[in-house]
Specification:
alpha/beta; Rossmann fold; two-stranded parallel ribbon; binds flavin mononucleotide; binds iron/sulfur cluster
């Protein structure tokens, strides 16, 4: 892909496949200015986000000459070739693994860059996420010079109450400052992983029954249900990175392979999308800590999530 030195708002939005909502994109500040290792070097940051943590981190790591690119938009557009001085990826860990779409993207994409970095966001337990990404990206021929993690609000609804999570100080600014300094100085480093963390991940895989080659790839209709509280506002149809929701004459219909990102559940204004109870032995079992508490990163707007994930426009 040919890179421009400067990208206009119009071309940036075109690249995101969302020109019609340009006013809101500008208002949401898609392209912030921050320090970059070298003001002339071009940086591309790919991101995947369900509730905004990764978009927030990606924005904070963006310099003057940075393109922020949403992986679901690139997949929709079939774009798999990129060249820049520095290329980064920011994604949330799901069971310590990358989201399925990120995994498939890194397998297909051809990246040309002098320096590659990855920042993985998580909420409670990262285990060997760094090694997992190193393995997957290396096997895909896209090895990364720098891989680090950053702890954020944990949006895993089965175990965490979002109202409690937002009260916890996870030292995000301090951690982000260190990561920014590392990346701006093109540090070559992978955050170390302990044997205990590897064992914890193995234990999780045994309990969850997830396929390590796939990670979280569920059937949305099997795990979620839309209740009568739905007001047909259509938000779920825009925030799903898989385009699983449709507004029909008989209400909202949902079906399809699901990243389990929770963008739909967390952003529904009516709390009308709920987990379905599962038979014994199925993971996750359909219970959640607080069905009335929902989360989106405080710096990220609903429009930002729509722009990042929308598969409909
Ligand atoms: C399906 C799923 C699985 C998750 N698994 C983990 C995990 O294994 N360890 C962890 O610490 N956080 C886990 N989380 C929490 C997210 O990684 C974390 O909240 C992340 O910052 C969310 O990023 P986002 O707001 O960009 O979507 C999980 C969240 C989801 C939705
Ligand atoms: S976001 Fe919620 S209320 Fe809006 S259409 Fe979807 S399920 Fe219904
Ligand atoms: S159905 Fe919901 S959880 Fe699944 S990919 Fe779409 S937005 Fe994410």
């Amino acid at each position: 892909m040919i890179m421009d030195n400067k990208i206009s708002r119009r071309s940036a939005l075109k690249r995101m496949g969302a020109a019609v909502i340009s006013g809101a994109a500008v208002a949401s500040g898609l392209f912030p200015l921050a320090s970059c290792s070298d003001s002339k070097s071009k940086r591309i940051i790919f991101y995947f986000t369900g509730t905004g943590n990764c978009l927030y981190i990606a924005r904070q790591l963006a310099g003057e000459n940075t393109e922020l690119l949403s992986i679901p938009q690139l997949v929709k557009q079939g774009k798999y070739e990129f060249e820049a001085d520095e290329i980064g990826v920011v994604y949330p860990i799901y069971g310590h693994m990358p989201p399925n779409m990120v995994r498939e993207f890194i397998k297909k994409v051809r990246l040309k860059a002098g320096y590659k970095f990855a920042v993985l966001t998580y909420g409670a337990r990262k285990c060997d996420a760094v090694e997992i990404w190193d393995r997957i990206s290396r096997n895909a021929g896209n090895s990364f010079d720098y891989i680090n993690t950053i702890i954020m609000v944990d949006n895993w609804l089965p175990n965490f109450d979002m109202n409690e999570q937002i009260k916890i100080d996870k030292h995000i600014p301090e951690n982000l400052q260190k990561i920014t300094a590392d990346i701006n100085s093109q540090r070559h480093w992978h955050q170390p992983v302990t044997e205990e963390e590897r064992q914890m991940h193995q234990g999780f895989m045994r309990l969850s029954g997830l396929d390590p080659e796939v990670g979280f790839l569920m059937e949305s209709e099997k795990f979620f249900a839309v209740t009568d509280a739905c007001i047909d506002c259509g938000i779920c149809t825009y925030v799903c990175p898989r385009g699983n929701y449709e507004l029909t004459s008989t209400g909202v219909k949902m079906a399809g392979d699901c990243e389990f990102c929770f963008a739909c559940i967390q952003n529904c204004p009516q709390h009308a999308i709920q987990f379905r109870r599962q038979k014994e032995g199925i993971f996750p079992n359909g219970t959640e800590k607080n069905p009335n508490a929902r989360y989106r990163n405080e710096h990220i707007s609903l429009m930002d999530i729509k722009l990042a994930n929308n598969q409909k426009l």
